[in-house]
Design a protein that fits this description.
- The structure is a homodimer.
- Chain A is mainly alpha-helical.
- Chain A has two domains: 94 residues; 341 residues, Neurolysin, domain 3, CATH 1.10.1370.30.
- Helices cover 64% and strands 3% of the residues of chain A.
- Chain A has a three-stranded mixed beta sheet.
- In chain A, strand 2 and strand 3 form a beta hairpin.
- In chain A, helix 1 packs antiparallel against helix 2, helix 10 crosses helix 11 and helix 14 packs across helix 16.
- The termini of chain A are far apart.
- Chains A and B meet through helix 1, helix 2 and strand 1 of A and helix 1, helix 2 and strand 1 of B.
Chain lengths: 499, 499
């Protein structure tokens, strides 16, 4: 038994090494790759993906799993490891090779078409590709689990164990509350944030980013910051987790908060410490996309945009901002970086309206997958939903249903994770505050370590051993409850906007 | 036949992709890897090396080679490809796995012991490891070719087709001439180079390096410059060749010339253009270590330290040098960067004495391999040779026989390449000047492209198709002749030192 377990772990670790090497190839592509190196890099990535897949689907793994699953004398950790391994092995082996290669081919065509369609504001050109991606996702879902509703199977790929019905119930409450808060804010005078548009050089912003990484507790021995067109976090090794940011010279908060956001993701990856027996295995993976997002949102928004946090750091920020914050009071800065205003683009939206952008996508993609919404009707449905929930008129598809890359990549079921992340974060935050009465005082004194330590202990080190629903129950004592998030928003924004 | 050739090429290309991925792992380790990521990186490298080796020794390759070698209807390029492939396949398959793994193990121990020995100036602690490395190299040589003298077999690993006897003859002439030139310089007043020791910031030196890369013709679309503790060039893809440099703040010429040196290596790699049929195969490799070195030395020394070159670029350099060159005349700058002075350390030595450092190592390593010099007697032999050829007293082994890493890594037969590189470069230069009468005028006008074009045409695009001896014959019309190098030195340094 011990021998079979060791064999399984060794195979798993080799697969992890290959995937870390793949991550280096990807990181380098986004940061330093010379222009002409791109074509061959695609071959490197395909080769490594192929090697990692070969390792992941070895029949030997299936045999080892079958043997070990029959064992009775297993520790809790061993059981969890077998559960995770079985799940991933099934996922990797159940898809027919023909479907996998057809998806790869169509995804590449679809993404290229989306880039053009977005550029030319031409939904019609993208529509046939979107139909193909939906069709392939239906095939994928029934290959993975022919007995479950397709959208549930797709959701499960990102938020393990989740079902559309449960998410829809949670989102209904959330939607109602967010619309209400947004309306309350609309009735009040808007905050001024013009001082945030003053020029701050990339060099100064880079110093700020390094400062804030350290401030939230990012371990620079185990990672680093570089620049990329789109900020991301990537794991190149158990002790090598890298983040990127970008410097917008006429809006420096963009880099500050994206750095803190990515640092939140990275600190989660750094905290996936399952001990030496299972390090480097699938057990040391994240619990889910939404739990990952809860960590980035916790640091970016709940802590990073709090008044306490800026009480500690505003005095250090002003001298780094090349004069752009001279004469700006802490209170005004705080209100400026928390300005709420319904707008067109999800990725640029504020903490309140963000959730509504996501719910809209959840509702539309679920309808697309079920067939109750035809691809050709997507733009009109999108624009209607934007008008109804956010009160915003969509001027063109480029800033409407063509704005996100996800569907063009065939990622259906992914969007809900973003909003679930906010809900988990707020629920963790409520539990953390209750358990550590001095928490906000520490943050205001410049010490974020009590928050990080709590997250490490209650969330990070559980890694993939628990389902997201089990994790939130264990860490907070109750199941997912969206009221923590809306209560948090109500308290924060009623103080800012005075409603 | 076509099918067998295509199959061989496909296998070869996959091996190349793996080796390029390994190169990225190595590049990243020297440039950006976070401190704590080092341990896992060693595992990544070992894994990729294993995979590349697996690909390289596939019995299928042996079968394909045997089939194709029996064919009569082969093009010149196909014949060359089979020759190169056979040579590499034999090299990779002839070593018993037990010897390969023992060498890997002992090399790692030996290198660690060398680091300590150098630090503590303690040759005795390193001596047993050096004996082991010699013993393993003897085993390696007889596994590769039991019928040839061991040192010839080792030389052949770096300078294909070379023999100790021929090198010794060439080096004898070179040694006599270098000693003579060095003595002539010693009899004359020394140049002043104190202005080169003035502080220039790393940021300013980085701008200079980018300027000089472009000036010599480095294509930044196909490569980039970063910083590392020890400058190097590495090929991460056919169109992704990267160089590194380091910034010594109180001696900026160090980065300028190391950047030009590495750019010379990189431009060679960029020029290994064997056409689409054999791109990405072993035919697109360098001809040899010494040919590689001839390209870096050509750009660093023959062109990069020439008066013509600085006529074009000194005016642009002064404003980049943060005031350190204000009031310094071109002539004095030129003499400063060409100051000759026998000294202890090979890597810091000038163009004239460099060859003597290498010849000394050649003579000693050949004696060590033959057993005519005992390991315990190495320090004394080293110090005697330094006294006799360079007129320098060695104060300790750290600055004597422990200075270089090569022997600790088991690289015997490598050193001669460095000096052969100088000889090839000077011979190429003489031919180039004869064929392009306007060459030096172009360089003085800031246009290095005639030189680069000549090198691309006569040297680079031959890639691995010719042996170094064939390449020099074809490019220059005669076999290797050390008198080009010493004539070049005599002309240059008699003008500088007035002898």
């Amino acid at each position: 038994m011990i021998e079979a377990m060791n064999k399984l772990i060794a195979l798993d670790r080799e697969r992890t090494l290959l995937s870390h090497i793949g991550a280096l190839l990807g990181w380098d592509q986004e940061t330093y790759l010379p222009e002409a190196g791109l074509d061959e890099r695609a071959e490197h990535l395909a080769l490594m993906e192929g090697l990692a897949h070969e390792k992941a689907v070895k029949p030997e793994i299936g045999e080892l799993l079958a043997t070990l699953e029959g064992e009775k004398d297993l520790s809790t950790q061993e059981k969890a490891y077998l559960r995770v391994s079985r799940r991933e092995y099934n996922k990797e082996t159940k898809l027919p090779a023909s479907l996998v290669s057809e998806m790869a081919r169509q995804t590449s065509l679809s993404q290229a078409a989306w880039v053009q369609a977005k550029k030319n504001n031409d939904f019609k050109c993208f529509a046939p590709h979107l139909s193909t991606m939906i069709k392939l996702n239906l095939e994928k879902a029934s290959a993975l689990n022919p007995d479950a509703p397709c959208y549930d199977v797709l959701l499960d790929l990102y938020e393990i164990g989740s079902k559309e019905k449960a998410i829809a119930e949670v989102f209904a409450v959330m939607k109602r509350d967010l619309v209400e808060i947004l309306e309350a804010i609309r009735s009040r005078p808007q905050s001024n944030d013009s001082f945030l548009r003053r020029r701050v050089s990339a060099a100064a912003q880079s110093k700020m980013s390094e400062y804030f990484m350290a401030a939230v507790g990012f371990d620079k021995r185990r990672g680093r910051l570089d620049t990329a067109a789109h900020p991301f976090t990537t794991t190149l090794g158990g002790d090598d987790i890298r983040i990127t940011t970008r410097y917008v010279e006429d809006y420096f908060p963009s880099s500050v908060f994206s750095t803190i956001h990515e640092a939140g993701h990275a600190m989660y990856e750094m905290g996936l410490d399952v001990g030496p027996d299972f390090s480097g295995t699938r057990l040391a993976d994240a619990a889910s996309m939404a739990i990952h997002e809860s960590q980035s949102r916790m640091w970016e928004n709940i802590i990073g945009r709090s008044l306490q946090f800026w009480k500690a750091h505003y005095g250090k920020t002003v001298p780094m901002a090349e004069g752009s914050l001279d004469g700006v009071e802490l209170e005004d800065f705080y209100k400026g970086v928390n300005r709420v205003e319904a707008s067109l683009i999800r990725t640029e939206s504020d903490e309140v309206s963000y959730g509504l952008h996501v719910i809209l996508r959840f509702e539309l993609e679920s309808a697309l997958i079920k067939g109750s919404l035809a691809v050709k009707d997507l733009p009109a449905a999108w624009n209607d939903a934007m008008r109804q929930t956010l009160g915003v008129e969509v001027p063109d598809d480029r800033r409407g249903c063509l704005q996100d890359i996800h569907w063009s990549m065939g990622s259906f079921g992914y969007f809900p994770s973003y909003a679930l992340g906010n809900l988990y974060a707020a629920q963790f935050w409520a539990a953390m505050k209750e358990q550590i009465p001095t928490l906000e005082g520490s943050i205001a004194a410049g010490d974020c370590s009590p928050a990080l330590d709590w997250l490490k202990d209650k969330v990070h080190r559980e890694a993939a051993a628990l389902l997201p629903s089990e994790l939130v129950q264990k860490a907070t004592g109750s199941s997912l409850d969206p009221s923590h998030f809306t209560a948090y928003l109500r308290k924060k924004y009623s103080a800012i906007y005075g409603f």
